[in-house]
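Moderator note: this is an archived Q&A kept for reference. The question asked for a predicted structure of one protein chain; the sequence and the answer are reproduced below.
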Amino acid sequence: MSLLQPTPRAIVIGASAGGVLAVRELLSGLPADFPCALLVVIHLPRGRPSQLAEVMDGAVALPVMEAEDKQPILPGQVLLAPPDYHLMVEDDGHVALSVDAPPMYSMPSIDVLFESAAHVWQHELLAIVLTGASADGAQGAAAVRRAGGRVWVQDPGEAEMPMMPAAALAAAGADAVLTLKQMVRQLAGVGR
């Protein structure tokens, strides 16, 4: 049984410690004709260029790129938060980048992405919280659920760093607690 009926318009993903490999595993299982937009925040060291798009390229069938301010959000593409900027969703379906003070010392912030996406897409949103060593994403997950969206949380027992999934579960609960392999299986069937 699919956990994704109806199909979401967008999927937002947040990860921190251990997140590069987790996100890569998740995205590498998606087909080239995947019908949803994907926006990803992975906590990165500040003040350094990101190599995430290069790390994902070749392993992921979808186009993967660092988000640019005012870029349209399109189905079937992966937009990564650039270092030193918050990634947000605007009402008109475009990306906004912000340098506002980082909540919970995280820049980019998972909460900022999730909250802005929940405001725009409401029940048409899926948020996924993966491995990490902070509570970033917990309040954002709660905002997604309040707006009628769905939240998946990586099984803390599988996560390289269980603190972030556990914090999201404590703050928001989840529509599903899944391993990465279970998430890939569910996502690969979207729109089929």
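Archived answer notes: The helical segments are 19-28, 52-56, 110-121, 138-146, 163-172, 180-188.
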